[in-house]
Specification:
About 40% of the residues lie in helices and about 25% in strands. It is of the alpha+beta class and about 475 residues long. The strands form 5 sheets. Strands 1, 2, 3, 4, 5, 7, 8 and 10 form an 8-stranded mixed β-sheet that branches. The chain has a 5-stranded antiparallel β-sheet with strand order 11-12-13-15-14, covered by helices on one side.
Length: about 475
């Protein structure tokens, strides 16, 4: 399940902790939502509560909603997201109270019976259908006066969900506004694109039989997006193998930054790489390495200290890992390599990096040529960091492709040990702290992370080797 937000108070995680899981239901009807009005505080909460020890999530969801609202939901509820809370235990029975609230889209089946607890009666709970905007406004009025009480923390948590719901509703309806917001695209046919992990809104746009890719991000991101956009345009002048950056601007309502790219015809390399011979896989990888080397020739317009940036990022990741509360297998071994590498190395280069360079962000054109797409995570970083995704996602699909990418990057020359040590450093960071990201999306992503970590540890013989075992030149390939 996707993580919507994390709420943190300053707490000591080494103290005694009370852990609680809760379920809450989002019941929408037309433009309104079923909420609990807490009349004592004049706020609105989302119905739901804690999961009992003998209950499943579904059983708890049904019980809590009926008890608080008097409605029985059907079995067709859908995951929406969760919020994690780390705060002091207001009952003072423990030092800390750590809760995960799981939210589900639900549908009413029939009427049931309200059965409120004593404190809920005292706070005058009443189920009401109200507009999401009205509920948010009422909650924010209360939160301007109160922040730390139990009612305030619950109000803050549920308000974050209501705001997320409102934003999602707005985004779904915004497609109707696009021809008016971006004059360049008037007369276009817009089709939403839902694949991918970014929060950007994406659309395929067809105008006069020509296809384009439209991305929308927050208008506040314009400066950063423009810097990346200009670098992609520089790449377009150097090679036809990069997705074309065509136009960038701000929508007329000043809400979004828009970017218009060429829509690259072909198939995802990750889907089709195995259909090629080993030699062709290597050749495509070699081209990917050449293109990455070309990309890394672009330097930032201002000085950036990549070493300081990495140290800051690691400190934040370590803190997030402790809050995650997940004990990762071989974590100490991985942390040992990270610390020893940083102790011996403090000089890092800075280049324009793709940020997510692997087969899933590459297209194989109808002419069987490689095209690089999706620069959404591009940034100025140490160039060797652009190999971390390759060591996992591309390696899982084609070791021949990955061998080719490394050889192409170094123009067929001997790969230095310094490179091998550094890319192991970067992929180890992903291994050690990937749990922070994986937990946001649930058990499936956690299991994928654990499988990837096991694969990588074996590739490097549990840090006994700096060169992965699959990088053996059993045969030479023609590179063009």
């Amino acid at each position: 399940m996707k993580q919507i937000a994390v709420i943190r108070q300053e707490i000591d995680l080494n103290g005694s902790n009370l852990y609680r899981e809760a379920v809450r239901g989002l019941i929408l009807e037309d433009d309104k939502i079923l909420l609990i009005k807490v009349k004592k505080y004049n706020v609105y909460h989302i119905p739901g509560g804690g999961i009992e020890s003998d209950e499943s999530m579904g059983q708890a969801l049904k019980r809590e909603i009926e008890e608080e609202t008097g409605y029985i939901i059907d079995d067709h509820y859908q995951e929406y997201g969760y919020i994690a809370e780390y705060k002091k235990d207001f009952k003072k029975e423990y030092d800390n109270f750590i809760q995960k609230s799981y939210y589900f889209i639900c549908h009413i089946a029939k009427k049931g019976t309200v059965n409120l607890e004593l404190y809920e009666k005292e706070e005058k709970y009443e189920a009401q259908f109200v507009s999401i905007k009205e509920a948010i406004e009422a909650n924010k009025v209360y939160l301007t006066k109160e922040q730390l009480s139990p009612a305030a923390t619950a109000t803050k948590r549920d308000t974050l969900i209501l705001e997320d719901l409102l934003e999602n509703q707005f985004k779904m309806n915004y497609i109707k506004e696009l021809p008016f917001q971006i004059p360049l695209l008037q007369g276009g046919k817009f089709t939403p694109i839902t694949s991918g992990w970014s929060n950007d809104l994406k659309y395929e746009v067809v105008i006069n039989k020509e296809r384009y890719l439209l991305r929308l991000s927050n208008a506040s991101d314009y400066s950063q997006k423009e810097e990346t956009f200009l670098q992609i345009q520089r790449l377009n002048k150097l090679s036809p193998h990069f997705q074309k950056a065509l136009h960038i601007g701000i929508t007329n309502d000043k809400r979004f930054c828009y970017e218009i790219f060429s829509y690259e015809e072909g198939v995802l390399a990750s889907d089709y790489i195995k259909s090629f011979s080993p030699e062709r896989q290597y050749q495509l990888g070699y081209r990917a390495g050449e293109l990455l080397r070309l990309m890394h020739q672009l330097k930032p317009t201002k000085k950036i200290n990549s070493y300081t940036k990495i140290k800051t990022k690691l400190a934040r990741k370590e803190e997030d890992y402790q809050y995650a509360g997940y004990k990762l297998p071989y974590y100490e071994l991985m942390l040992g390599y990270i610390k020893s590498y940083l102790k011996e190395n403090n000089k890092f280069e800075t280049s324009f990096c793709h940020g997510d360079y692997h087969l899933g962000n590459m297209i194989i054109s109808p002419e069987s040529e490689l095209k690089i797409i999706d620069f959404n995570r591009a940034a100025y970083e140490d160039p060797d960091n652009d190999f971390n995704r390759m060591l996992v996602w591309s390696r899982k699909l084609s070791t021949e492709f990955v061998k080719g990418q490394i050889d192409g990057y170094f123009n067929g020359q001997v790969v230095p040990d310094t490179f091998w040590r550094k890319i192991l450093f970067y992929v180890t960071i992903d291994m050690a702290y990937g749990i922070i990201w994986a937990q946001k999306f649930g058990d499936e992503e956690i299991n994928i992370l654990l499988e990837n970590n096991e694969m990588l540890l074996k590739d490097y013989n549990f840090y006994q080797d700096i060169i992965p075992q699959w990088y053996r030149k059993e045969k030479e390939y023609v590179t063009n």
